[in-house]
Amino acid sequence: MSIFWSEIAKQITPYVPGEQPRDKKYIKLNTNENPYPPSPEVIKAIRKAANEDLRLYPDPDCNELRCVIAEYFTLSKDQVFIGNGSDEILAFSFPAFFNPKKPILFPDITYSFYTVYAKLFHIDYHLIPLDHEFSIPVDQLTKKNFGIIFPNPNAPTGKYLPIEKIKHVLEKNKEVMVIIDEAYIDFGGKSAVSLLSQYPNLLIIQTLSKSRSLAGLRLGFALGHKDLIEGLNRVKNSFNSYTIDRLALACAKEAIKDTTYFNNIRNKIITTREQTANQLIDFGFKVIDSKANFLFITHPVHPAEKLFSQLKEWGILVRYFKTPRIDNYLRVTIGSDEQMDTFLTTVQKLLP
């Protein structure tokens, strides 16, 4: 620990991403990346945009992309915020909408960056325990609070909260911010975008990393009332006005516009997910119902940590969280049919 670190740097525990080993070639089912390439239109766009204009700063307001996203969701441009990945938008959201010493609520088993951001920005928080089936108990989100944030579908479980229950949460929390992280919504869930006109305290955050195969590009967006978007802009412009580069802006527009490719890819992943889940159930695994591009699984006999290590030896990476309540579960990203066939064949070999 450096003597020059601030007290904040000394006290925080940073988020730990999925491992990216380089010692050999692995089937990567540990970071929820899309197994399929981005739209061909995206590749064309990046080639076209890689020109002498790179000497110029990009549009700090991302106006063209905001217009494309607004049209896609039938919103106005001033209801759209663009960020360098959804994680950046989440980071901006904590100081923009939550206050120190006023506790917010989020699930005890969820995206671990929430805890990191809360501590970084000195936001108090109360954890809402998931029930025995890993569902979010919405009644617990109605107790007194100063803000709520949760993913839908949740991570790392993949459990989805229906719109009716989200509306119940919003009805009981009209005076505080409710942020829904929809990073995985395109894999079978219904977005809460339809509720934006009724609830000016609702912010929805999505990403192009998962369903649009652009994890390497770093592009996310938020949707909400124009006053919320202005709040995000105030924070962003206090750090860096030029968070999105020219290449990312060009590619993101085409990724949003190519709806045919988008639907084909996500439907393939959904089909593969269901086939994989059924096979794992046949192998004796308990598989949590998922609306994401991953499965959360456990076996009654074979410890998750041991399976994690064995799979790695066989060249397959999955995610293992050594934390209470889920330390006997594995999170398995849905890859291509060929990758999942290899995964299933290997798992079957590891079971007696």
Word description of this protein:
- The chain has 352 residues and is an alpha/beta fold.
- It folds into two domains: 120 residues, Aspartate Aminotransferase, domain 1 (Alpha-Beta Complex), CATH 3.90.1150; 219 residues, Aspartate Aminotransferase, domain 2 (3-Layer(aba) Sandwich), CATH 3.40.640.
- The chain is 36% helix and 14% strand.
- It contains eleven helices and 13 strands.
- A five-stranded mixed β-sheet has the order 2-8-7-6-5, sandwiched between helices.
- Helix 5 links the parallel strand 3 and strand 4.
- Helix 2 runs antiparallel to helix 8, helix 4 crosses helix 5 and helix 4 crosses helix 7.
- The radius of gyration is 20 Å and the shape is globular.
- It starts with 6 loop residues before the first helix and ends with a helix.
- The mean pLDDT is 96.
Question: What characterizes the major β-sheet?
Answer: 5 strands, mixed
Q: If you average the pLDDT, what whole number results?
A: 96
Uncertain runs: none
Number of domains: 2
In order across it, which strands form the biggest sheet? 2-8-7-6-5
The global form is globular
Query: Any idea what the CATH superfamily of the largest domain is called?
Result: Type I PLP-dependent aspartate aminotransferase-like (Major domain)
Q: What's the β-strand tally?
A: 13
Q: Do you know the CATH architecture of the largest domain? A: 3-Layer(aba) Sandwich
Q: Quote the beta fraction.
A: 5-15%
Order of helices and strands: HEHHEHEHEEHEEEHHHEEHEEEH
Question: What is the CATH topology classification name of the largest domain?
Answer: Aspartate Aminotransferase, domain 2
Amount of helix: 25-40%
